## 1
Amino acid sequence: MTDGRTECAFEFDTDTRVEAVGDHVYTATVADRWQAVGGTANGGYLLGIALRAACLASPMPDPLAVSAFFLRAGVPGPARIDTEPVRSGRRLATVQANLSQGAKEVLRVVATFTDLDKARGRTLVRNEMPALPPPETCVDPVAAAGLPAGSAAERVEYRLPAVGGWWCGKPTGLPLAEFWMRFRDGRDADLLGLAMLVDAAAPAVMELGVAGSLTAELTVHLRARPAPGWLACRVETRHVVEGFHEEDFEIWDSEGNLVAQARQLALLAE
Amino acid sequence: MTDGRTECAFEFDTDTRVEAVGDHVYTATVADRWQAVGGTANGGYLLGIALRAACLASPMPDPLAVSAFFLRAGVPGPARIDTEPVRSGRRLATVQANLSQGAKEVLRVVATFTDLDKARGRTLVRNEMPALPPPETCVDPVAAAGLPAGSAAERVEYRLPAVGGWWCGKPTGLPLAEFWMRFRDGRDADLLGLAMLVDAAAPAVMELGVAGSLTAELTVHLRARPAPGWLACRVETRHVVEGFHEEDFEIWDSEGNLVAQARQLALLAE
């Protein structure tokens, strides 16, 4: 994971590379091509870096429940990730990863890992994946609306059934969206990619006509390894109270399986 | 908070007392009257202890987003809570609290605090509190069904519109429930109490006929200070995949406000 010289390295893998420099300590470089509107690093991208270091420190391969506290804005440049193996059990292992820049901690992540290949138990899903037309017949909202988007939005592709609402300057008042998403350079999502992608789309509250949303905390549950291809996404906010709001995010893979479920607590930027 | 000699101390306050014994270090005693079925300490109760220490270490009063990783079973007896003030900003402050017993860490909590009195912003709720008959006309399921419940269930009161399903040995197959809840000794819930109560009811997956559910990670968002009185609760599991499942928990206060929203990742015990 510290070798970016392979021939067809994808952007996300190149830009989340971490290098071991000491006992449980890693360094990384926050790239400038994953920025949110405003020039700070996209939160999901920072989580990708921290979680990659946590993966290296984990005795089990698959991140399962990941909680991220966003403490400060991340910026392009060097970063350090201090990891701590917290507990290793028979079915689960927990690791903490603190990402800092300079002397300032930017992001604190605690993640529980498992080995999904060994998961045994029943399956019951009381939910449906978003009913979307095929991506080929959908619209690229970034291209269609020409909104100023951070560079992170150029690393990811979106497809909507139709472009309307806040994309066209007419917020619907309904903070809910369903759409397709994938990495633009053809990288198929894996669990690490999913942890980034749950924070890679426009906040649902944009439909309330706000300027944006600042994430305080994000928890993502990675439920299955995704099949290759487009990912069907559902994002929704149901409770805005005095500016604080949750955002729920589901990602379903091309075989119709729920693969990631995230919730964040965020503050309206008005 | 370290003085339990007040005349009408409630059980939850007495049993989550923490005492400062060093720089950011607290001790507590895990009481034996908050046990789950099986004799281990209820997870929400342990979270109450850790979060009380985190509150003391926080420069802001109100826990807002709390993430808890359950590492080992907690047992009655002494506990130590190591806290770390992580970051203090203008609107949010983050604290970590690790609860251990002996040399073993039992629970790791990261919590972001705010001052809810200073919250300003819009409010929009796209959800309804559970439509329940008044608690007075509902049934106490523990008394009615006579199931073996841990001692924690004796500290909390539940009221259901009717007692059926797994309570009567006939699981419905539908992991969903709506009910009233409160502390049995008359203590009104506050934010700390809510953080305990989101883990104080029977898991929704009991309706699948399983033996129980083991929590790996629980995140609770505390959205408003609750009004006194009964709390209306909704618990639901929508995705069980290979035994792993989320559980979503909402608590609404007697004035109809959403006051807590929790999600946990757990494993079926079969």
Note: Residues 1-5 of chain B have pLDDT under 50 and may be disordered.
## 2
Amino acid sequence: MTTSFSLAVVGGDGIGPEVTAQALAVLDVVAPAHGLSFATTDYDLGARRYHATGETLPDSVLEEIRGHDAILLGAVGDPSVPSGVLERGLLLKLRFALDHYVNLRPSKLYSGVATPLGDHVTSRGDIDFVVVREGTEGPYVGNGGAIRVGTPHELATEVSINTAFGVERVVRDAFARAQARPRKKLTLVHKNNVLVHAGHLWTRTVDAVATEFPEVSVDYLHVDAATIFLVTDPARFDVIVTDNLFGDILTDLAAAITGGIGLAASGNVNPDGTAPSMFEPVHGSAPDIAGQSKADPTAAILSGGMLLDHLGFPEAAAQITAAVEADITERSSTPRSTEEVGEAIASRVAGGVPVG
Amino acid sequence: MTTSFSLAVVGGDGIGPEVTAQALAVLDVVAPAHGLSFATTDYDLGARRYHATGETLPDSVLEEIRGHDAILLGAVGDPSVPSGVLERGLLLKLRFALDHYVNLRPSKLYSGVATPLGDHVTSRGDIDFVVVREGTEGPYVGNGGAIRVGTPHELATEVSINTAFGVERVVRDAFARAQARPRKKLTLVHKNNVLVHAGHLWTRTVDAVATEFPEVSVDYLHVDAATIFLVTDPARFDVIVTDNLFGDILTDLAAAITGGIGLAASGNVNPDGTAPSMFEPVHGSAPDIAGQSKADPTAAILSGGMLLDHLGFPEAAAQITAAVEADITERSSTPRSTEEVGEAIASRVAGGVPVG
Ligand SMILES: CC(C)[C@H](C(=O)O)[C@@H](O)C(=O)O
Ligand SMILES: CC(C)[C@H](C(=O)O)[C@@H](O)C(=O)O
């Protein structure tokens, strides 16, 4: 018996399509052994379409995408498009419209991977944590505006919106994840000594939900202090729950200390299943190296693994993670093309020897 | 001839008074040779006063403080006071009321200082940059609120307010600082692909002011990417200009990579001189080690140096920096008390041999 899933594929801009192609190739290799198959629909969205038609994400396309079981996304953003147009009009529109309220970003330092941190830091313990970043609220809501633009009297606002409903559901999800991990530890990161209204909502919510998870130990860090610990004692973290903007910042830093954004995967998850979840590398479109087969597809491939896990195939996901881990650990310093990395990981998944 | 300056001293909470005492002692040692003297007024503000009277910063006290030439602040915040009360009611009230629009935070990795970064990163070049953090706008304005607090329908907002007036003055200050430095490089950090209204105001302002400083080279980083570069290539930075919240986050990370917040000084500067500027260590009140003579007063002492520089005594300031640098470089691993560190730096300033 084969279970077939429909995947909406949004390669997007820059290196997005290249790395997504490798992620799909690896998915196709892992699928059969688990009785899985994928039917993909490609969506031409991003800078090219914007220039051709002025569209970022037409409603009809959004509705088509919604009909799929999951979404695989490459990267969004191009210097030829004003900053924010594609990010807000395409990437964030997908996250918000499809209610991706859990933006899941695991960070793990694999052995042998280069990190900017010194040995005295990395030897303090295993770096293996996950950031549960809220995905549908906070300063990302796009609520704000400007008056008298371009004059000396310009005033621009950005409004962070936070609701008990929105905070509680992501906090509960984060507690459940902490509960399921060996260390059972949750750290709330916010800035509740300055952003008192939103911060206290987060703090009170964590305190309340904590009573349902008595085995989970909880602490709190201001976002500024959290960045310090991420570089001085990252092993202290297990599950971090935080708001949309703080999560954006912390996960880039987390990626940096665990080998770079070339390795960092993410899932924009709708845990309620009311719309498809979306999986994408944390890195951007890297227009400077686009089309040169220089991009590392590892993060995209790992995102494919997260997609499998989300669809209910943890063993298949683990196969991808193991193949990536082996590939990373045994990487030589000889540069490989995007395709070579993809093929090497694919053949490890297939049980073969590394190619290229 | 002696020039006398009046200093308002706000030791504040936790380790604040201890470290401030050492900063004052060092100022007193350096002063005479430069024809300087200080008359200090102590202000009892912080948790103790809040518990005793319910006050954080009465208007009459604010007006008294305003009458001084400069302010030396220790630290604000105590676990016995709800998070935000002292921060917003005292520290931020001072910064906003006294129009400290340039929050100046230098970061320098002195030789011999322990950093979490590996040699392969620190050997890429000298880490020596300054963050010009906007101090009177952004998400720190305290504009926001909450309705239905404590119910499942709670909604909390935080509004970031940004004006052309406020952004331009800090950007111009940052350009002038970049112009005066050997590398003449300015990096704007924001998140203009998401916070498009505020972000584009910042971007356009930097572009406009750049025409007045043709020798300064300018680049832009999203805040998430900036955290990556701070740990992978911090030597790339010279002057960073950024908003209030991003500046808060980046400067803690900057402090972490250059030896920790025990060494990080800051100035809340009113460049127009319409009110006294305020100098304080970047670290917090560290209530867990308060009263135990364990706090490192170096950051407070360096903040005293920034105060001297601001008052127009760069040589006196340089004497403090040099004494601190010598002390840091020659530190042994034997722990010293707050007083011992202060005395060691003071006697280096006095030209004597290190004490303790
Ligand atoms: C491209 C950008 C809008 C996005 C974000 O800020 O969320 C990216 O930085 C990320 O972390 O996925
Ligand atoms: C204590 C707090 C309000 C303050 C800030 O957020 O500005 C501190 O973190 C700082 O950086 O000076």
Note: Chain B touches chain A through 69 residues (CB under 8 Å).
